[in-house]
Each structure stands twice: as C-alpha cells, then as structure tokens.
Design goal:
The chain is α/β, with parallel strands linked by helices. It contains 25 helices and 25 strands. It folds into three domains: about 290 residues, TIM Barrel (Alpha-Beta Barrel), CATH 3.20.20.360; about 120 residues, Malate synthase G - maily-beta sub-domain (Beta Complex); about 130 residues, Malate synthase, domain III (Malate Synthase G, Chain: A, Domain 4), CATH 1.20.1220.
Length: about 725
C-alpha cells in the first residue's frame, strides 16, 4: 500500500487516484478544493464523533450497572423509566412541529411503492435494482410460487400460463375497472379522441388512462395509473402469449421498485481502499449514467446498462415520459467505524462515515449538473440513508456533517436529504426529537426489526436471558415500536413530504407467503417497504394498488398516537423459561448456523449480502443485521448460563459441517470442518464469545478485522 499526502491527510493512492482522475472531473470541483474541504471536516468533526461514541459507552455502562444492582429482583418499569430519564437516555419530548424538507422527488413524497436495497459493490445487482422500476407481472407470477406452486421444468406450460393471465386480469379489474364489462372478456383496447375505450366502454375512472404507444386504433402499449403507480399493457399479436390472447395482450408491466437504496453499509464488505473504490466507482457510474456490466447468461454474452425513460403519447396528443429507473438513494455507514483508506494528520484512521458523506455527495454532483438524459433526482436533491444513529445528538451530528459537506462542495444548504434508520433503541424512544434534529433534511424514516432487536438485547444484556427469537417478535414492544414509528412520522408531517418505511422480506423464494403477509406494511401506513429482489418488487407493488396509503395515513393521523415509550421500554425477557434441553439447543443451533452461513462468505470472499440456507434449507437474505441479532442472542444466553461455552462451541462445529454441505457447489468456498481453525470460523466464534464487549453489539469490528486478516494473507 502506498499513500499520498493531501492537506495533511494520508490517502491510499488507489483512492486518491480514483477521486482525482475519475470522480472529480465533471463536477466543477478541483482536487485542492476537495481535499482542503475534507481535511477541515476531519479536523473539526473527528473529536465530536469520538465524543458521541464515548457517550454511548457511558450510557451503556450505567444501564448495565442498574440491572446488575437489581439482579434477582422483579423488574420495576417506572423506576427503570425514571432512571433512563435521569441519565439522559430518555429525553423530554418537545412541542409539535412539521418537517420542512423541500425539493423531494415524487418517488419520496407522493408515490407509495416498493423499495429495493442492494449491495453497491456488485455492479450487476446494482443495475438490476436501478432497472427494477418496471417489471413483468406475467413473468413474476409464472416463475415463482406466487400462485402457490412452482413452474414446471422445461418450456412454457400453457395451463400455468392461462392461470397467470387470469390472475393478471383479476388485478386489472380491481385496479382499473371498466364500465359495464371485465378485462377477462375484452377483445379490443383502443384510443379515440383522447379517451381509452375497451370494447367501446370507458374505464370507470377515465383519468387513470395516461398514455399509449403506436397506432391509437391498435396500440402497442397503453399506460394506466392507480394510486400513483403506473401499469403498462403490452400488445403484440406476434408474441407467443399475445398471439393466443383475444385482445393480443402479451404482458402486463408494473411500475415496481419506485426507489432503491445503493448500500455502502450492512450488505457490503468494505474494509480498505480497494473495497471503497469498488463501491464508489459503481455509485459514480450510476450518477453519471454510464455504468455497464458484461456477463454471460445461457451461453450468451450480455451487457447490462441503465434503462432510458420510456415515452408515450398522452391523451392530449403530446409526448409524456416516465422514469425508467428507480430513484436511487445511497446508504452511508454509521458513526462507529473507521477505515484505513485515509489517515488523518495524527496517523489515525478517518471515520468512514465522514469519508462516505464527502465522497458519495461529491459523486452525486454529476447527477445534479444534468439537464437531461438519465437523471436520478429531478428536484436537485441527494438522498443519503444514515443508519445506526443513537438518539437526537447523533442525528444532529449527521445534519452537521452534511452541512459541512455542502459548504465544502459549494452546494446549496439542504441539498442532501437524510433517511433516518429507526433501528437503535435510543432513537426509537426519542424518535420525535431525532426527526426534529434534521427537520430540514428528513426524507425517510424506516424501522429495522433485526438491528433494533440486536440493540435491544445488547442494551439490556444484564437484565436477564431473552426469549427465543420467534417469541421476541410476538412481544408487545415490537408492535409498539412499529406503530410509534408511523404515528410519530405522521405527527411530524412526513405524509406527502417523505417516506415512512418498513423492513425487509427476507425469504426471496417464498413469494406466495410474501403476497399474503407483506400487504400489512401499506395497511400500517407505511408508504414504502423493503424487498429483496426485482421480482419481489413487482409482486409487492400489487399491494399498493389494493391499499390507498395516503387514505390510511389520514385515518391514522386523526386517530392519534397508538404506542408510547412505555410499551417500547418493555424488555422482551424470558419470564418463565420452561424450555426443554432440545428447545434450547435448537435455538442455539439455528443462531449458529445463520451466523456461520453468513460470516464464512463475508470473511473469506468479501460477500456482504447473500442468500443463506437456514437449518431447513430455506434461503434467507442475510446481512450484518441478521448476524447481529443472532450473535447477541447466543451471547445473552451464554452470559446468563442458559448454555455453556462448551455447548456453544459444539453447536458451532455441528453447524459448520452443515454449512459446508450447503456450499458444496461453490468453487470459491473454503470448508470449515474438520479442523475448525479457519479465520471465518474464528470470526463466528468471536461474534458470540466476545459479543458482550462489542460496541452496541455491532458485528463490524470483528468482521472487518478478520476480513483484513484474510486479505493480508492472500
């Protein structure tokens, strides 16, 4: 590794070269301005960052001591709440206010719909996510278990295809009813005098017709809109489906992933300059619009690029276009981690959150300077999701970071919009004040059950053993947490200005279950929710056609707040603990298997997000959040004597052999058994055995250290 000095900063040459030679040209910012501005930010804000982390530790020590002093006594909720107030953990709630965020794009403010989260280091995944703005309903119904069965092997099966077409027409009847007939019976769609006629009958709501392509007498495509989401009917009598359809309808395409988070955090493994450059380069390609990825599929060479904006003829005869790509947000890392890519004047690693803020916003200037072409934001905004913040002080610090970044880069104040992840306990119990701390920037709040549970366990580690994970989900605190997030978001004026989001569906192969369950997210008043794939985005979009989210939000707002801090402060401890040894071991093994399946790819291959088979071989999308909850849960049971260290090590070894079997088809996989001496296996052990000592129970310090160890040996 070589370093170049820039305004007192020691910058890895690889990163320096990328920033100066690739990222800065075209922004209007020269290298000296960039490095001088960043050096000042590092000098001024590093002490603040350190002080905030110290504050986390001080509060945690006080909470640990409180529980230890009352070990064996019944939990006194009121005394506990008062104690949290006294130490400044639980803050007074201020007066009512509304956020003042301006210039948010329609996808943020006005269009409820699915949101993808994708590791930014994988260019193919990134392009798939960006292009997932539109998806084929026919393909998604046919190719998944959405209709309660999987497609047969081999070619197209006409009986299944007929069921798909019938299901799609039911959707059309629900979202776009026709006066006097049904889409099932229609033989002709055409446009006359600016009106859509369907077998000469109009839509019940003619305003839902937005445009068409081709000859109005026999259009190639018709564009409809319901609850802000578009649907395209594609006609092609030469297509193998359209040829057999009485209306020549060949496909129904849905506007799907309205927005997508390009993730620099929990779903990636970025431990040095090489990794950071890979992440930043993909973000640069997205913001410039020239990202491309070549690969081989079914024996054919293919190149994937960003989709253009499709154009239709509007009812009045003018041209009208719609976005061809999801609105892209970028998730920076939180306040905790440093990275060796840049050292400060004292030779210490720079806080990675400061680096991410400066570099990702600078790169986004390429999009801000566009006047046409493949634009991301049409409102001149940059959307940064900020994770793992603890309370209003840390949100205020994030606001200060971006104020300084804007000044250094010559951007108007509040160009950067912040997404606040409500995934740490101290943020949940002070959510209103967290939003207030960034009221000019807030474009997004989102609940994250897994990280939130991981922090719940770590914060209350000394309170006693926690329930089994499935039972933690059933406790009152989690519904209180989810409900309060929506209610406070509405109280603070986010409706029509910002997103209120819900968490991930973790089982990408189980689409039937997702269709049955994930409708609860728009029903809860959330105007977005995370999905694991473009296919899931298209299917989840169906829910937003069924539910008018803004009507739900209005009803909730009139009903007042449903959940208060008291509910959220209920600690999900195991009250009775009538577990059999088999139940205990099953829980531990399940946790260990998930940890190992994820960590072995993270440490050995640098894969930060992957589909990890569980003990029943059901593929689960895993990132650091799922790893955090599993590691903290076993650490809690180990600490309170539910299991012994020997029990845990035996479980880890047994599960390692299962994970080895599940990865037999991966040529890059390094088996853990029979020696159990590999760095990845040791990392999994560290996450559990040293879990209590990890700051807030985070996995990053262990994983980064062990991944760097692997890279050093390669």
């Amino acid at each position: 590794m070589t370093r170049d000095t820039r305004h007192g900063l020691q910058v890895d040459t690889l990163l320096r070269s990328f920033i100066e030679d690739q990222a800065l040209p075209g922004t209007g910012i020269d290298a000296d301005q960039f490095w001088a501005g960043f050096a000042d930010i590092v000098l001024d804000l590093t002490p603040v960052n350190k002080a905030l982390l110290d504050r986390r530790s001080v509060l945690q020590d006080k909470i640990d001591a409180w529980h230890l002093a009352r070990r064996g006594q019944p939990h006194d909720h009121e005394a506990y709440k008062q104690f949290l107030q006294e130490i400044g953990y639980l803050l007074p709630e201020g007066s009512d206010f509304s956020i003042e965020t301006a210039n948010t794009d329609p996808e943020i403010a006005l269009v409820p719909g699915p949101q993808l989260v994708v590791p930014i280091t994988n260019a193919r995944y990134v392009l798939n996510a960006a292009n997932a703005r539109w998806g084929s309903l026919y393909d998604c119904l046919y190719g998944t278990d959405a209709m309660d069965s999987l497609p047969p092997r081999g070619g197209y099966e006409r009986g299944r295809g007929a069921r798909v077409i019938a299901r799609a027409r039911v959707f059309l009847d629900e979202a776009f009813p026709i006066a006097g007939t049904s889409h099932v019976d229609v033989r002709r769609y055409h446009v006359k005098d600016g009106r859509l006629l369907i077998d000469d009958m109009p839509l019940v709501d003619p305003e839902k017709f937005v445009g068409y392509q081709g000859d109005p007498r026999a259009p190639d495509a018709i564009l409809l809109c319901n609850h802000g989401l578009h649907v395209e009917l594609v006609f092609d009598r030469a297509h193998f489906i359209g040829a057999r359809d009485q209306a020549c309808l060949a496909d129904v395409r849905l506007e799907s992933a309205v927005s997508a988070i390009m993730d620099c955090e929990d779903s990636v493994s970025c431990v040095d300059a090489e990794d950071k450059v890979q992440a930043y380069a993909n973000w640069l390609g997205l913001m410039k619009g020239d990202l491309a990825e070549s690969f081989e599929k079914d024996g054919k060479a293919m190149t994937r690029r960003l989709n253009p904006d499709p154009v239709w003829t509007a009812p009045d005869g003018s041209a009208t276009s719609r976005k061809g790509r999801a609105l892209m947000l970028v998730r920076n890392v939180g306040h905790l981690m440093t990275n060796p890519a840049i050292l400060d004047a004292q030779g210490e690693e720079v806080f990675e959150g400061l680096m991410d803020a400066m570099v990702t916003v600078m790169i986004a200037i390429h999009d801000l300077r566009k006047i046409g072409g493949l634009r991301n934001s049409v409102k001149g905004s940059v959307y940064v999701v900020k994770p793992k913040m603890h309370g209003p002080e840390e949100v205020a610090f994030a606001d200060e970071i971006f104020t300084r970044v804007e000044a250094a880069l010559g951007l108007p104040k509040h160009t950067v919009k912040i997404g606040i992840m409500d995934e740490e306990r101290r943020t949940s119990v002070n959510l209103k004040e967290c939003i207030r701390a960034a009221k000019h920037r807030v474009a997004f709040i989102n609940t994250g059950f897994l990280d939130r549970t991981g922090d719940e366990i770590h914060t209350s580690m000394e309170a006693g053993p926690f329930s089994r994970k499935d039972f933690i989900k059933r406790k009152a605190w989690i519904s209180g947490y989810e409900n309060q997030n929506v209610d406070i978001g509405l109280e603070c004026g986010l409706s029509g200005r910002a997103q209120i989001g819900k968490g991930m569906w973790a089982m990408p192969d189980l689409m039937s279950a997702m269709l049955a369950q994930k409708i609860e997210h728009p029903k809860s008043g959330a105007n977005t929710a995370w999905v694991p794939s473009p296919t899931a985005a298209t299917l989840h979009a169906l829910h937003y056609h069924k539910i008018d989210v803004f009507k739900v939000q209005e009803k909730l707002r009139k009903g007042g707040r449903r959940a208060y801090v008291d509910t959220i402060l209920d600690i999900p401890l195991a009250a009775h603990r009538k577990w059999t040894p088999e139940q205990v071991m099953r829980e531990v093994e399940n946790n260990c298997q998930g940890i190992l399946g994820y960590v072995v790819r993270w440490v050995d291959q640098g894969v930060g997000c992957s589909k990890v088979p569980d003990m029943n071989d059901v593929g689960l999308m895993e990132d650091r959040a799922t790893c955090r909850i599993s590691a903290q849960h076993v650490a809690n049971w180990l600490h309170h004597g539910i299991v012994s260290r020997d029990d845990v090590m035996d479980a880890l070894r047994r599960m390692a052999t299962i994970v080895d079997r599940q990865n037999e088809g991966d040529p890059n996989y390094r088996p853990m058994a029979p020696g159990f001496q590999g760095i990845a296996f040791q990392a999994a052990c560290d996450l559990i055995l040293l879990g209590r000592q990890q700051p807030s129970g985070y996995t990053e310090p262990v994983l980064h250290r062990r991944r760097a160890e692997v890279k050093a040996g390669e």
